[in-house]
Q: What sequence folds into this?
């Protein structure tokens, strides 16, 4: 039986736009009829650009928002009606490093939040050392949070999330703002937490993160789920089996025609970037070699650099499903919905 | 809801706030100095109006029913401070949580949100208890104020007003949650209360229509009781009607406060106002 079940969830917000005194109300659909189910022990990612509806979804599950319609259940408890029961079996890590009290030490923070989870002082005391050891910050217990690095603070936040031994953990953009090393370390820790049998629902707009961590990925865009499956199956579902990427000094229709006739091409995208032309060719088959391509380009008098063959990535899945890249979407969304 | 989500969070929130406050050295100094400094202006103003030989006292005595203007003013101001501590700190604690970034996280936890508000108030009372004692002692030592009251009666009066204050503070907390920034409404309300309840002057100086409104506010009865008990050494029996009135209003205000807070909680969760600042 699924531990989280979301069915036809909808949430809209009224926003005001325009200059002062002439503001017009506008209804924005943040989440528009999404459904998914998460099995116990699974890492499930909601992947999408800012303003796609990820945070709204996670806030509904975290009992911070009441949906307009549809249902969201955690272990059978309705998040809108049985919110207390949900909060007892689930913890949430919200974005930002200011979710701790900076003037308290790590242990004082954990003891305080432990009591808000209804845990006994003895239980919390026994658990803190183990958690700090698990996250590799056992020497930071008596240090004020304000003296920790961003990565260390995020580890304390994760320690807090594990304090009550929850069955489900919600992670909203857990690696946002971390440097690459700290982000990698945190991703490893998230995998280890899942290894303890916890169910994890995380939101991210990093393709690599979703690909590396998730058992299941739901690509969310404009409040709707565009596709949902394991990362491997999502990539396999693409018609393109191999992607050729290269930089050339010139590109024309005759080159397009050659590649289309020879390599069972699904699509060709060529566009200027700096002083060169960036070319991406998605092929339905992979029966060709680097030498064949470079010989052809040389023979055509085209100077090519950085030729690479890639397997389709989640980014390609995202483009296929939504028609643009995640960064384009973020640019188009402009001011994101902050709820 | 289970007791562990109610009572323990009150103590933990209080302990947390006390620890954080005491880690700011300047806040500790301010806490100790404020109850001494704050009534001083009013004390000297009273002294100026009374005249060097008390020649201006007769009018005050007629209006305030006492010639001990110093005790009258200092007590009124200390009560004002006490009410501030209770009323505003709890409500504003949620606003502070928003600014710190810990607000949403608190709301994802099973602990009662009312407990967190009460915890902040408890911390404020704990942090201000000794400074208030220091303030009273200071004015006793300089001879401006005589402490010869029945302490049980004083304590009883304070406990009696608490349900009213807690109810009021929960309504303010709800306002803070709903409006996100309730600072200005707090300032206006406390100024209006201070005027209507005659905390810093005799109520008799107000026009009849205004002072009659003040008589319906339990705080007016409370400050009247405190002044009577401390300045005139009156017994609680002399205030039987006020005691009943404060108790009944307190219970009604407490229920209203809880109801308003719970309804506001649902409202902000529907409108998406839990997050952000």
A:
């Amino acid at each position: 039986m699924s531990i989280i079940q979301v069915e036809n969830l909808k949430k809209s917000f009224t926003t005001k736009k325009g200059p002062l005194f002439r503001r017009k109300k506008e209804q924005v659909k943040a989440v528009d009829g999404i459904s998914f189910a998460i099995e116990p022990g699974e890492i499930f990612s909601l992947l999408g650009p800012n303003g796609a509806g990820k945070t709204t979804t996670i806030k509904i599950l975290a009992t911070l928002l009441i949906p307009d319609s549809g249902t969201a259940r955690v272990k059978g408890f309705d998040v809108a009606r049985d919110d207390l029961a949900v909060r007892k079996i689930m913890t949430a890590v919200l974005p930002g490093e200011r979710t701790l009290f900076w003037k308290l030490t790590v242990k004082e923070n954990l003891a305080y939040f432990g009591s808000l989870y209804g845990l006994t002082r003895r239980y919390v005391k026994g658990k803190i050392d183990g958690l700090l050891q698990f996250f590799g910050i056992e020497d930071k217990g008596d240090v004020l949070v304000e003296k920790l690095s961003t990565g260390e603070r995020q580890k304390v936040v994760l320690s807090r999330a594990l304090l009550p031994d929850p069955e489900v953990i919600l992670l909203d953009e857990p690696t946002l703002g971390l440097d690459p090393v700290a982000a990698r370390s945190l991703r490893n820790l998230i995998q280890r937490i899942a290894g303890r049998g916890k169910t994890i629902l995380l939101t991210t707009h990093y393709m690599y993160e979703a690909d590396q961590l998730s058992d299941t990925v739901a690509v969310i865009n404009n409040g709707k789920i565009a596709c949902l499956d394991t990362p491997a199956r999502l990539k396999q579902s693409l018609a393109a089996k191999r992607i050729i990427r290269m930089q050339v000094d010139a590109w024309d229709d005759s080159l397009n025609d050659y590649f289309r006739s020879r390599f069972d091409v699904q699509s060709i995208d060529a566009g200027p970037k700096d002083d060169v032309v960036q070319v991406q060719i998605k092929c339905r088959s992979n029966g060709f070699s680097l030498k064949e391509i470079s010989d052809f380009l040389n023979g055509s008098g085209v100077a090519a650099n950085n030729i690479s063959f890639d397997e389709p990535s989640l980014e390609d899945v995202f483009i296929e499903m939504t028609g643009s890249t995640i960064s384009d979407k973020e640019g188009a969304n402009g001011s994101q919905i902050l709820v | 809801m289970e007791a562990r989500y109610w009572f323990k969070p009150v103590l933990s929130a209080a302990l947390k706030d006390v620890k954080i406050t005491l880690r700011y050295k300047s806040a500790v100094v301010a806490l100790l100095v404020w109850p001494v400094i704050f009534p001083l202006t009013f004390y000297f103003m009273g002294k100026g109006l009374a005249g060097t030989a008390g020649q201006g006292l007769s009018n005050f005595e007629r209006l305030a029913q006492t010639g001990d203007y110093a005790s009258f003013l200092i007590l009124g101001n200390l009560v004002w401070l006490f009410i501030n501590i209770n009323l505003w700190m709890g409500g504003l604690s949620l606003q502070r949580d928003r600014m710190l970034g810990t607000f949403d996280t608190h709301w994802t936890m099973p602990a009662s949100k009312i407990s967190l508000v009460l915890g902040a108030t408890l911390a404020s009372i704990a942090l201000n208890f000794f400074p208030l004692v220091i303030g009273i002692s200071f004015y006793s030592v300089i001879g401006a104020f005589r402490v010869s009251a029945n302490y049980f009666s004083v304590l009883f009066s304070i406990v009696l007003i608490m349900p009213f204050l807690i109810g009021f503070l929960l309504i303010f907390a709800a306002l803070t949650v709903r409006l996100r920034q309730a600072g200005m409404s707090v300032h206006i309300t406390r100024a209006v209360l201070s005027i209507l309840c005659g905390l810093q002057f005799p109520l008799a100086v107000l026009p009849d229509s205004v002072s009659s409104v003040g008589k319906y506010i339990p705080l007016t009865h409370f400050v009247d009781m405190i002044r009577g008990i401390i300045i005139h050494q009156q017994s609680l029996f002399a205030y039987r009607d006020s005691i009943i009135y404060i108790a009944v209003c307190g219970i009604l205000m407490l229920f209203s406060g809880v109801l308003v807070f719970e309804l506001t909680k649902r409202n902000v969760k529907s409108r998406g106002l839990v997050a952000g600042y």
Residues 207 and 314 of chain A are 6 Å apart (CA to CA). Chain A is about 35% helix and 30% strand. Chain A touches chain B at residues 11, 13, 56, 59, 62-66, 84, 87-88, 91-92, 94, 96-104, 108, 111-113, 115-118, 338-339 (CB under 8 Å). The radius of gyration of chain A is 24 Å.
